[in-house]
Amino acid sequence: MLLEMHDICKSFPLGDGYIEILKHIDLSVEEGEYLAIMGPSGSGKTTLMNLIGCLDVPTSGSYYFCGQDIAGASDDALADIRNSSIGFVFQNYQLLPTMTALDNVALPLLYADVDRTERRERARAALERMGLGERVEHRPNQLSGGQCQRVAIARAMINKPKLLLADEPTGALDTASGAQIMDLFEELNAAGTTVVLITHDPNVAARAGHTRHILDGRLVEEDAL
Ligand SMILES: Nc1ncnc2c1ncn2[C@@H]1O[C@H](COP(=O)(O)OP(=O)(O)O)[C@@H](O)[C@H]1O
Ligand SMILES: [Mg+2]
Hints:
Layout: E1 3-14, E2 17-29, E3 34-38, H1 45-52, E4 60-65, E5 68-69, H2 75-85, E6 86-90, H3 101-111, H4 116-129, H5 145-157, E7 163-167, H6 175-190, E8 194-199, H7 202-205, E9 210-215, E10 218-220
Parallel strand pairs: 3-8, 3-9, 6-7, 7-8
Antiparallel strand pairs: 1-2, 1-4, 4-5, 9-10
C-alpha cells in the first residue's frame, strides 16, 4: 500500500466547540493506482486532500504514507514527505506570478538542493514533455489556463513523486484543455505514478481507474448515493 487511512476524523474549532468535517474515513491506495474521489461542493474533498497530501494532520485515526506514521508526525517531517514524495496540482494552478514557467517548475529542485544548471535543464526537459518547450520564459499571465496547468503538472512531477495529488485540476478549464490535462494524468499513471484526483465532475472521475464517493464527510458506497 502507498497510503492507508483508518478511522480518520477531522474537526475544526467553531464558536465554543468543534465542527466535524471528516467522519470515520477508511481509505487505502495501492502503488500504481489511479483513484478519483468524487463528491459535491462542501462534502470535505479539499479537507481530505490536505490530509492525504500531508498538509494537515487528522484529529483522530491513523494514517500511514509509505509506511510512515503521519498522524503523529512533526511539521518538519510532513514537509520532508511532501517535498520528496508528493506532487500537488490545484484548480487555480498556484504558480508564482512573477516567475517564468521554467523557474516555477525548477523551484522544488531548489528545496531539494539541486544545483542551478541541473535545475534549469530538468525543468526545461519537463516543460518540453508537457508540450511547452516554446513557453519556458513566459510568465503565468502570458499563458492560457491549460498551459498554466501543464506548467503546474511539470512542477508537481519534477521530483518524481510517488503520488500525484490533484484537487479539481480541470475546474477552471474549458472542455478541450481539461481533456488534455486528463490525457496527461493517464500517461503519468501508465508510466507508474500513483494518481489521486479529487473532483465534483463525474466525467472527470470516469477517466480514473476507479472512484470513491464522499458525501457529508463520509466515504460512501455508490449504491448509497
Ligand atoms: N478550517 C476550517 N474551519 C471550519 N470549517 C471548515 C474549514 N475548512 C473547511 N471547512 C468546512 O468543511 C466543509 C468541507 O470543506 P471542503 O473540504 O473545502 O469541501 P469541498 O472541497 O468538498 O468543497 C465545508 O462546509 C467547509 O465550510
Ligand atoms: Mg474543494
